[in-house]
Specification:
Length: 407
């Protein structure tokens, strides 16, 4: 992987160019006027500062760093392993080294071990662009030596973890001068999904069906008899055709037509939820249903409301949007400045007979939800709510209906 590097340097006063110049001038003056002892001390300090300065400036040269993760989707409580490599491509050794990555204010991923948390002074904040970081101290690195290690990071809450770079800090052995290099890294973003829980799909499967066979997620429609076959051990007695058995001496079993359920689209009415915990619960339920329907082979779509920093998001399986990409959007969704109204002009795929349409809302009485019900009144729109519905115009289910006792 090719990294782009931006280097910088810093030092204590004694290892600054101004201090070195002043000390060496005073040393020469002292020796000129036979102040041998003072001149010797000043000469030593000047040479020490010069050596430290040059050493610190050159220590970071020839160093390379990179890291990557073993997966880019993780659930809360799970871990993702990061693999790190630091390489010294010059013959001179590095006496001390710090490998650092940026720390967010409320990170969705945190290192389980191997890193300690640090913070910059104000001057360094301007140089690096952030204040807090995770740091791992490496004691010694020989010339042309590479050091690799692995650290597990634990998912704390929903979000998208983006670590687009790291930086190295090193310097001279005296601690008088240091230099650093920032490495841009192409590590893919990591999505921490909402909590995925088992859900009951019955309400989404029993409405209407399409007659497309030969796909995953098929169920049998007992109103469409396809054929009969001989009874086999293990067949349910409910499938026996008793009329045929009464007319013949053979016992036959009914084979029903297999059909595939229609597409399902969910509209997230985020503005109707008052508390952040309620938003998280709704996102968790939506993610769980998407995963379950995907495993059943049923195409899905989602609509997320516009926010202060992002427009409305409409995703459809027909457009090539995968369930994984929808889960990424749910992981990174921030309920800040959420718009109450929806742009129905961009929701063309929802207004079709083959689409089963659900609005995830709190009570279903908000302005945005009422507007959607009016606009899609001929589409069989339904509500999925966290509390009893306050809207009598459409049928509704509560979250507990599909997560606990069923319907």
């Amino acid at each position: 992987m090719k990294n782009k590097r931006r280097a910088s340097a810093g030092s204590s006063f004694i290892a600054s160019w101004v201090a070195i110049a002043i000390i060496l001038i005073l040393s020469a003056v002292s020796l000129r006027y036979s102040l041998t002892a003072l001149g010797a001390v000043l000469s030593f300090l000047g040479v020490l500062g010069l050596v430290a300065k040059l050493w610190g400036m050159g220590a970071v040269k020839g160093l390379e760093a990179e890291f990557n993760a073993d997966r880019n989707i993780v659930e809360i409580g799970q871990s993702v392993n990061f693999n790190y490599t630091v390489e010294n491509r010059k013959p001179l050794p590095v006496m001390w080294l710090e490998f650092c990555v940026r720390a967010e204010k409320d990170p969705c991923l945190t290192p389980a071990f191997g890193f300690d948390k640090g913070s910059f002074e104000e001057a360094d904040v301007e140089r690096y662009g952030f204040r807090e970081f995770y740091r791992r101290r490496l004691v010694f690195l020989m010339g042309f030596q590479a050091l690799s290690w692995q650290t597990a990071w634990t998912a704390r809450h929903r979000g998208v973890f983006i670590e687009d770079g790291c930086f190295l800090r090193t310097g001279d052995s005296f601690g008088l001068a240091e230099s650093s290099a920032v490495f841009e890294n192409s590590c893919a973003p990591i999505a921490v999904l909402p909590k995925i829980e088992p859900v009951i799909l019955t309400p989404f499967l029993r409405q209407a069906w399409l007659g497309n066979t030969g796909k995953r997620g098929q169920v049998e429609d007992i109103t469409i008899l396809n054929s009969l076959r001989d009874y086999q051990n293990g067949d349910s007695w409910k499938r026996i055709d008793w009329r045929a058995a009464a007319r013949q001496d053979e016992i036959k079993v009914k084979i029903f037509e297999k059909v595939t359920p229609e597409r399902v689209h969910f509209i997230f009415d985020c503005a109707s939820f008052a508390a952040p915990a309620d938003v998280e619960r709704a996102l968790s339920l939506l993610a769980s249903v998407l995963v379950a329907l995907d495993e059943a082979g049923i195409p899905c779509g989602i609509t997320l409301p516009a926010r202060q920093d992002c427009g409305q998001i409409d995703m459809y399986a027909e457009n090539g949007d995968s369930t994984e990409s929808m889960l990424f959007e749910l992981a990174g969704f921030e309920a800040i400045g959420v718009h109450e109204h929806f742009d129905t002009d961009s929701m063309l795929y929802c207004d079709q007979e083959s689409v089963q349409l659900w609005v995830i809302s709190s009570g279903g009485a908000g302005k945005g939800c009422r507007e959607l019900i009016t606009f899609f009144e001929n589409s069989g729109i339904r509500l999925l709510t966290d509390v009893p519905s306050r809207n009598d115009d459409v049928s509704a289910l509560e979250f507990d209906d599909i997560t606990e006792g069923g319907v």
